[in-house]
Amino acid sequence: MERVFLCDVDGVLADFLGAVLEGVHGKTGVAHSRQEVTQWSIADSIGVPKELIARIACEKGFCRELKVLPGARELVDMLRKYGEVYFVTSPFWSSQYWMYERNHWLWREFEADSNEIVHTSAKHLIRGDMLIDDKPSTVEMWAMSQPVTDPPVPPAVLWYQLYNQGFVQDPRLNVVTARSWEDVETIIRRMP
Ligand SMILES: [Mg+2]
Fold first, then answer.
1. Who's near 137: CB < 8 A, 6+ residues apart?
2. Residue 16 C-alpha to ligand 1 middle, in angstroms?
3. Could you tell me the distance, in angstroms and rounded to a whole number, from the CA of residue 10 to the centre of ligand 1?
4. What pLDDT score was predicted for residue 34?
5. Residue 124: which residues within 8 A CB-CB, separation 6 or more?
6. CA of 12 to the centre of ligand 1 (A)
7. Torsion sign over Cα 84, 169, 46, 37
8. 150 CA to centre of ligand 1 in angstroms
9. Which residues pair with 14 in a beta bridge?
10. Which structural domains are found in the chain, ordered by start?
11. Ligand 1: distance of its center to the CA of 7 in Å?
12. The model's pTM
């Protein structure tokens, strides 16, 4: 059976953070750098209200216009060499445009069609041989929900970003950090 790779979108393939910072600059006149965002919450990192971030992300065209992150195409191409890729992405639920634009974006950038896209925040319910995600709590929950197997559970891969570097890993969970698509390929090659 083909391997199943579950790949998050924002922060792994799509530059959500860059677009939010651009939006904040446009609305407040204050430019913030990516280096300022050292915690999961962008609002807390740069000291703006959460509502401002939500307003920016809910605008028509926001999701459609996200830039592809460096290395993202290489990551997806590499994963497709080893198995099937499913894009598992949390919808920005208060946006009326998000899911439509995300589908369109995934088709445009990665030729993903509807049976390769899962919109959910409950990623721990999705089965696969690997999850790649930049959100520590999601990676951890996914790792925890895997059945105990021999050989051991599939790897949950935390996609390294400045804002998740403080994450302290539970050593009992099969969570590994990757900083590049090459790191992910190394992990795949070690899989049983
Ligand atoms: Mg993400």
1. none
2. 8
3. 4
4. 97
5. 138, 141, 142, 144, 145
6. 6
7. negative
8. 29
9. 10, 68
10. 3-14+66-190 (3.40.50.1000), 16-57 (no CATH)
11. 9
12. 0.95
- For the segment 14-45, what is each residue's pLDDT rounded down to a tens digit? 999 999 999 999 999 999 999 999 999 999 99
Which tokens hold the place of 15? 């530059």
Count of alpha carbons within 13 angstroms of residue 71, beta-carbon side:
12
What is the model's pLDDT at position 169?
77
CA of 89 to the centre of ligand 1 (A): 7
What is the rounded distance in angstroms from the CA atom of residue 78 to the CA atom of residue 113?
Answer: 18
The answer for 28, left when phi > 0, alpha when psi is -120 to 50, beta otherwise, is alpha
Pairing of strands 130-133, 117-119: unpaired
Which tokens is 12 given?
A: 């792994």
Q: How many helices (H) and strands (E) does the chain have?
A: 7, 6
